[in-house]
Amino acid sequence: MSGSRELVAKQGETPAIANLGEHALVTSDRLDLVGTVSFLRRRLGIILGCAAIGLVAGGAFSVLSHKIWRAEATVMVLDTAKQSPGSGPDDTTATVPETQLVDTQTAIIESQDMAVRVVQALPAGILMPSPVLYDTLMHRIAARRNSQTYALTISYDAPTAKQAQMVVNEYARQYAKWQVTTEQERNLRLRKQVEGRLDKLRQQAQADTEALQHYRIAHNLLSTSGASLAEQEISVYNQEVSKARAAAVEDRARLDTAIEQLRKGSSGDDVGEALDSPVISSLRAQEGQLAGQVANLEARYGPNHPVLIQNRNQLQEVRSRIQAEIGRVMSNLQAKRNVSQERLGSLDASLAGARAKLADNNAAMVGLSGLERAAAASQGIYDTYLGSYKQLLAAEGSERPMARILSFASEPTKPLSPNIPLVVALAVVIGLGVGVVGAYVTDALFLGITTAYDVEHNLAENYLASIPLLSSVHAERPPALSAVQDSPRSAFTEAFRVLGTAIDQSTTGRAQVIALTSALPGEGKTMTSCCLAHVLAEGGARTLLIDCDMRRRGISRQFNVGPDHPGLIEILDGTAALEIDHLIQDRMLCVIPLGANSADSERLLTGPLFAQLLDRMRGKFDRIILDLPPILPIAATRTLATRADAVVMVAKWRETSSFAIRTARSRLPKNLVNVVGVALNQVDLTKRAYFTREDPAFYYNKYSEYYT
To answer: What is each CA distance from 178 to 33, 164, 174, 402, in whole angstroms?
Structure first.
């Protein structure tokens, strides 16, 4: 390719210098004595600044704050619920209350109600009227229990000693009679409320009772047993219907049996009712007697004998009477059957009427039950209010105080606050404490990579080298490439020699293809690639530098190669020929820029064409440096990294977090990518002495003369 260029220094701006505070601290420093001293040196500004702020604040508070005076009065709390009926407020036999009651009394003293009573009782001019007067009193008043006793100390803080004394004494007086006053006001208020409700409740109870009675009369429920009587009547009807139904069945059966016997040719003699009839029995006796006489006469006389004919006629008459009597029996059976049916029908009709009446009564009982409950509730409420009213009348004049004043407050002789020496000392101590805590918190929240120890222990990666910040080793601050070219014996240039040596020592054989990448953009990997390539070329290795960062095009821009100039993309897609001999000539360092971006740029870089190009270059160059894009934002980096013999991750000193490096490292497959380690970039050697002694840069001040 005819468009390749030699490496030249770019006369432009230097890379951005990390904006580091002068109190940086690595979180993994061992807190031994030297480490603690280093920590204090790094964070001395924060610690002293906080202490100075505390000192100024304490002094200003002591000078400018208003004086506060405190007066105290003592009262004793009594439990009126446990006093005997004949004991008075001065009776020493009054029992002491429970702890919960004492705590309640302190809340009463500090309440707004007590503040209102005190303001109303104090003489005019003691307190200045204001919209927040009550809030001020509640804020300044305090009540506390004296150890395990039931004595309460009431204290009040005021801007003057006289005001403090008068206000706290008034608080004690108002609290001592608060129970009596409160009970009187409560009883009066409740009595008025109950009086207003009693008349309404009485009218309501009377109206509910009248409505209940009217309902009973309207629905014929003069007794609450109405429903039970209807049920009893239905029970009686059910019994009578059962009896009538049995009788009807029996009468029908007898009639049907008699009719069936007659149909079969019976003369009716075997009908049950005929057998039981005394008339038929008497006629049967006469028939037997006449039949015997007829038989005797027939044996003695001829058939035409007058006596025989007479007896025969009598026998026929008796038999006719028997048949007539049997007919009457059958007619009686039919009549009994008809009567039984009519009686059963009448009872069924009466039972249906009783059931209808019961249904009406049940429906009416629903409304009756509601009215009864309403009347009972109204009467109960009325009775309750009436009892409460009587209790309130009986309670008048029986109120007892809950507290007794033990001692009034005297006028204080010295202010409560401020205590200037204590305030200043405390402010300084707090400032120092806040400063130390702030320093430790700053270190605890710091996640940047600082030392080789961080790389090897926190990241579990190989530490390669530290690339100094140019401003920390070059007072004139030249561009990075110019510093490497113009000062080959400087600490800055030596750092890249250390990097190259570390890469070789981290691989089993000589790493021919070296890829430099980073976790995030802006960590200086492109400048590191350029400087490393220059140092390797200066060391006698024929070196090829290839720009593989399609987004930033760092190397291409470093050598002022525009996107219209043929480069790596044109070589891969075949639009530009690669003339290796023309490229090399007598140069020790050659550069292949990226070229123009196209839709297939990423595919060309990650495909087999780029791998084939590298294989061709291996035979022509001793070292091939690949400037890869960052790992996290660009997916193609994971594929491009597999083309290199060694991959170096560049991390910006104290800015790139360990989480970002770990995340980026996890995106590179371990079985395909050989990550030889991490190189720290833009390391401020003037501040490195504040960190671990295990880092070579810790001793920079002792060997810095070797680079002069």
So the answer is: 65, 21, 6, 8
**Digit-coded pLDDT (tens) for 444-489:** 777 788 888 888 888 889 999 888 888 777 767 777 777 888 888 8
Buried b (16+ CB within 10 A) or exposed e, 197-224: beeebeebbeebbeebeebbeebebeee
- Smallest Cα–Cα separation from 480: which of 539, 589, 558, 560? 558
Cα gap 221→372, rounded to integer Å: 13
Q: Is the distance from CB of 653 to CB of 15 less than 8 angstroms?
A: no
Name the 3-class secondary structure at 76.
strand
DSSP-assigned letter for residue 8: -
As a whole number of angstroms, the distance between CA 521 and CA 544 comes to 23
| Among candidate residues 255, 321, 247, the one with its CA nearest the CA of residue 283 | 321
Give residues with Cβ within 8 angstroms of 52, minimum separation 6. Answer: 431
How far apart CA 572 and CA 605 sit, in angstroms, is 8
Yes or no: say if 526 and 558 are a contact pair by the CB < 8 Å rule: yes
Q: What is residue 458's DSSP assignment?
A: I
Note if the pTM is more than 0.70. Answer: no
Three-state helix/strand/coil letters over 118-166: HHHHCCCCCCCCCCCHHHHHHHHEEEEECCCCCEEEEEEEECCHHHHHH
Counts for the chain of helices (H) and strands (E), in that order: 25, 11
Contact assessment for residue 500 and residue 532, using Cβ atoms and an 8 Å cutoff:
yes
**Cα 429 to Cα 435: distance, rounded to the nearest angstrom:** 10
Which pair of structure tokens corresponds to residue 288?
């037997």
